[in-house]
Structure formats: C-alpha cells, structure tokens
Amino acid sequence: MFLGEFQHSLDAKGRVILPVRFRGRLESGLVLTRGLDGCLWVMSLEDWESFSERLNTLSLADPRGRDTARFFFSGASEDRPDRQGRISVPEPLRRHAGLEGDVVVLGAGRRIEVWSPERWESRRAVVEEQLEDRIADLQL
Fold first, then answer.
1. What angle do CA 26, 81, 115 make, to 5 degrees?
2. Quick check: helix, strand or coil at residue 102?
3. Which one, 14, 84, 86, 114, has the greatest CB density within 10 A?
4. Per-block average pLDDT, block size 10, for the chain (140 residues)?
C-alpha cells in the first residue's frame, strides 16, 4: 500500500524521483497514466493489469465506455524506476497534470498520484472542507 505525501521536482529530462518507500513494489515495472482530477496515476504492473481488465469489460457499444478506456489507455506509459528511483513522465502526461518544476507525489492506497503543488493544494482544500459530510455519507 502506498502512503504519504512527498515533495519532489521534475528534472530537465522530465523525470521525477519516487520516494524510497514506494520503489520496492515498482521494481518489476509500472504504468503511468492520466488520473482523475488533473493528476497522474502510477500503478504497479499487477495493479495496472487488474485495472485494465476492468476497462476492457466496458461495452464498446456505449460511448462512455469507449471514452473511458481511451482516456486511460491512450495516456498510459510503461516504465521501471532507474537506480536513483526516477521515472520518465512523457510530455503529454506532464501537460495533462500541469507539471513543471516542483511536484507532489502522494500515496493513494493501491496507486501513487503525481500532482502539481497548486492543483493538489486546491483539491486537498476542497476535500478537507467537505470531509465531515463525505465520511458520514460513506458511513466510515
């Protein structure tokens, strides 16, 4: 499980360093793709396979299913952390997430999220403001 919030930055080649505690689960490879809310998702190959199997069950007759599958598959990029724990973030994905310079790397359970600091702060503030109602609705 991926937990925690970390401040990092993109290097000149568009790479980001993953936190040391995240690297073990990703040594055999990972998939980086567009995430919801304007961030990127990073998943282990195992979790990506599970997620992509569910995407592949969406009906081709339903435009929503086709669009959802396109959104995730067209943005997907396989990688493996290098010796320094860096992964490459392709330009289209950097644009999707508004990544330039500093980034926030979050543990989000079975996936990692990569955010621009401004987008993360804005999203976190909205969630925090609504958290009490959300917890009640989810019956946590």
1. 85
2. strand
3. 114
4. 96 96 95 97 96 90 91 95 96 96 97 98 91 75
Q: Which of 101, 100, 107 is nearest to 42 (CA)?
A: 107
The number of domains in the chain is 1
What range defines the domain where residue 27 resides?
5-138
Residues 6 or more apart from 14 whose CB is under 8 A from it?
A: 88, 89, 90, 91, 94
Element (H, E) at 109: none
Which among 75, 82, 105, 110 has a CA at the least distance from the CA of 13?
A: 82
Structure-block tokens of residue 103: 């980034």
pTM for the whole structure: 0.91
